[in-house]
Fold this sequence. Notes:
The structure is a single chain. The chain is of the alpha/beta class. 20% of the residues lie in helices and 24% in strands. It is built from four helices and 16 strands. The chain has a six-stranded mixed sheet. A four-stranded parallel sheet has the order 1-4-9-12, with helices on one face. A four-stranded parallel sheet has the order 3-6-11-14, with no helix packed on it. A hairpin with a 2-residue loop joins strand 15 and strand 16.
Amino acid sequence: MKTLPLLRLVDRFSQRRYMRLATAALRSGGMEIDGQPLWVAPSIYVDSKEQGIISLGHRCVLSEHVMLLTHDFSLDRYSEKMGIAPSDMEYETKGKIRIGDYAFIGIRSIIMPGVTIGDGAIVGAGSVVTKSVGDGMVVAGNPARELGTVESAWERNQAQWQLKRRRP
């Protein structure tokens, strides 16, 4: 989304105003948006403008440098080398990506084609998510693996967190 980095200056003054503008830009770029995402960083990378191939849920968060990859051409090289496909044709696979309500995608994570991140799920920083993540689950790693539930992570770590007012 080439428009989002241009809005970074707006975010310095008002996260709410930035998100209103960012949401409009994402919709015009073909994303389906259900409700109002809490935060979509200006540095996210989206590889498709195909209408509806990516959907974002209510109050979800996409951190800095998250990549949403909706297609893959990697096996095309093999098919051409082996003579399976002529050089003027290419093999491609595509898949929708859905980020659920209240889901959190950590910095520099990559979401691969066909993946759904369930409602309330957490994807740890730097993860490569190749399979769908269930509602309320925590995943991390490359490839991402289940670490447990958000509820158990909250119970283990709640004492380390402080409540503060959101930016306006």
